[in-house]
Amino acid sequence: MSSIQLPKVLQNRKTSLELERENFEKFQALSISKAVNQTEQPIKEKHVRSTIIGTFHEKGAGYFWNVGLRMPVQDNPIVAWKFCHLLHKVLREGHPNVLVQSQKHKGKLADFGKLWGHLKEGYGILIARYCHLLITKLKFHQQNPKFPGNLLVTPDELMNIGENDINNYFQMAVEMFEYLDDIVSLQNSIFGSLDMSRSNSMTSSGQCRLAPLIPCIQDSSQLYDYCVKMLFKLHGSLPPDVVSGHRERFLKIFKDLKQFYINASNLQYFKNLIQIPLLPDSPPNFLLQSDLRSYVTPVVVMPEDDHDSLETASFTEAADLVDLTPIQPLPPVPPQNGRTRSPSPPAIPPLPDIVAQRDLLIQQLQAEILRLKGEIQKLLAQYEEMYSQLQDQIIDLETKLAQKESELAQERQTKEELLVKAEAAATAEEIEKKAKEKEEKFQKLKDVYGNLRKEHINLLRQKAEVEKQLNVTRQKAETFQKGQTVAEEKLQAVLSERSTLEEGLQQTATEKDSAIAELERAKETAVNETAAVQSKLERALNEKSTLEAELHDLLAQKLEAEEKLEESEQTSKLMQSNLKAESDQKIFALLEGIVKQAEKMLQNAVNEMDNPALAAVTCSSDYFKCLCGPTDKILEQLGPMLDKFRADQEGIDDLANSITQSAHNLSWLLLHGKALSQTATDIEIGDSMLEQCRFIGTGSIQLMSLLKNKESWGGVSEALSALRSQVQSLGTLSERLEGRGTPLDTVGDLLESELLSMEKAIDEAASKIEDMLTKSKAADSGIKLEVNSKILDACTSLMAAIRELVIKSRVLQEEIVAQSKGSASVKEFYKRNSQWTEGLISAAKTVAIGAHFLVEAANEAVTKGGKLELLVVASQQIAAGTAQLVVASRVKADRKSGNLEKLSTASRGVSTATGAVVAAAKACRNMVETADVLDVSGITLHAAKRLEMDSQVRVLELESSLQQERLRLAALRRHHYQLAGESEGWEKKVPNLNNDWFQTMDIPE
After folding, report:
1. Domain boundaries along the sequence of the chain
2. CA-CA distance, 856 to 385, in Å (whole number)?
3. What pLDDT shows up at residue 623?
């Protein structure tokens, strides 16, 4: 019987389920591809809704990921950005299984974010931040599976999720903070990438970037609400110090979220899409549990969709419930006798009855219609209620199912972890046991190898002896063979002689026979000896083969032992490499500690440069030049030492010594550079040196920062070159300061140069103070303008008095020279009175340095809010210099001289101006302190007592600091007097030229 051939159409026919699945996949793929396209515009909501409905139809996200991973998300940034947005919406509103099934794709999202993170412009950084946010969301739901995708839970459910355990709430708050930090980071990147001239909220490109902020706002509002409630619960159960970190982190997130909501609510794009909540002006006070009652939950309101579809659906359902089809006419009466007979018309009633019946029928129909409408409305209400109840039951059942699955997964994971731990413990014991056994085997093999080595050496020695005996035996056998050959040759010779001489030797036959017999005996003896030698040779060869076999066995054992020894050597090498890594780590830690100490030393030097007490320290240019050379040399050696250490990890001692020495030399150089800049008579060069010292300090700290991190050693050479060039520039400035002006051959020329420098410094200082006053009047106002005006006016008056004093001093000096030089020249007069001349030179230097310091102090007080005490110190130093100048002039002047009287008057004017500066500084300080008077009107008794105690503590601290500073000032003055005594011996003969003289002057304090 032949088989029945079915048609091809019937063979390929698909079932209804297959066709339904195929249509679903086509529709789902089409929706995803339309949503995630390359057009720079936001995703359409209908495509998102279709994708979300597909997840409920499929009860998962398997097909969504299959389609999404095949899309060009790694090629086009717009596609990648829209895919992240669509995934966020699906995770929020899709089927609950979407969160579970998407956990395995976290690695792909991480790789995806890293790929686009390399693109620092455009969508690159946005995609990286969005991927990080999605991974955080998946981790949060993995750790807290009871939270749905949209994060909507009731307060009771929130408490049940935490299981009323404070530890759970503590950890959950940390996870929510991380979630909120990622949301804030994403929105900062989005708003930072918008160009208000092109990519604003009313353009398609700007809306494409802003669209993902809608689900971010929904997530952040829920997380913010849960964080507030959990923090109130934590503060109610734990001490405030324990949750201080949570509180500080929440305050930062509160500020960021508030700004985020304000920025988003100001954009026109969000007006019709979402109602953004506004956070309160101040965050909740978690220390007061009563604030929880006044807390208002932020609510995000999404506008309702168009109700046309719902109305259409309601009308269709009502039409199904009520048969609204038109009434069909009656069929015709069947024909009789083949004819069709129409029904007979009814009898027509009278007209009034017809009208009454029509009105009654209309009323009945209207009543029926109203009744039917009411029933339809009731049925619709019942249907909607039943539908909502069924939906709630379905959601509850799915939630419970997901919870059970998550609990089951957690139990499985816990079981696997316990098994892994047990296996790890057993494995650790087995490894330790095997290690001990291997160590014992290794020791045994080592002993066996030593014994085998000794036996091998003995056998080699025995083999050498046997070979020597064998060689001797072979030589003997060769000797015997040679003797046999010689004997045979002799025998042949004898036989030939016998044949030839047989007739002539008949008489000697007896002798011949005896000789033949002797030769035969000798032959037999030689043959016997040869046989014995051959037997000995055979025995030696047998012994050699036996020894070679034993040698082969020993070599095989040796190879096995060498293999085991190689394994042990590899183990020891691995241990050595680990030890070396630990040693390198310790070396780098030691080097890092040394660099940190060096950085701290340099930072202290930089901070010490701004210390007012350093103003009394001086330094000569010769000594400063001696510091620049070694500093440059040690910096030059630091680069090769670092390269050597990087190459072979050697020379750590030299490198550490070089770093320490470099930090010490640079710190010493900065402090002496500051001192030299203060003593410079040329203010411009002094300012340049001070600025260069600050550059060197900054460069030194940056160099130490590079040395701390091994990965940044590549930039050390460049930093060293820049630092060396700065040190060399500083040395050049000191040389300019030393060699400024023309060469001076005599003391008189030196005095004239110093007086000119003093006048120049005073003029420059006066002009700078006037400039500062002009700038302050233009820029400041109020108390600050009044304070600055008083200070600068007082400084201007002081500079004018000093200028007048210098003029009177020059006139008196010329009078002294004219009266006392006699017939000598001016230079010879100065040369004869060198000590007096040096006193004038020192006084001129002191006045120039004081003017420079006064300008710095005024600048600090006016522009940077510096200490007013600096002005007092600077004005007192100038007064001391001028007093020294007056005293030096009085030594040679005539007591009745009118110029001397004028100089004394000018000196009193300087004293008065100095007192005015001091008084202005104190008045300004009182003004500032009065402006900052403590308002005690609203302070309670407890708070006032607390402030009083704090004030007493502050007074004691300030008194201790004042005592220490006085001791330090005394030490600096002693050192200054010692240096002045060594460098300027004339002061021993001209008393009261330093601050001791200044203290006796009538200057108000």
Report:
1. 16-140, 151-302, 609-738, 747-1000
2. 84
3. 79
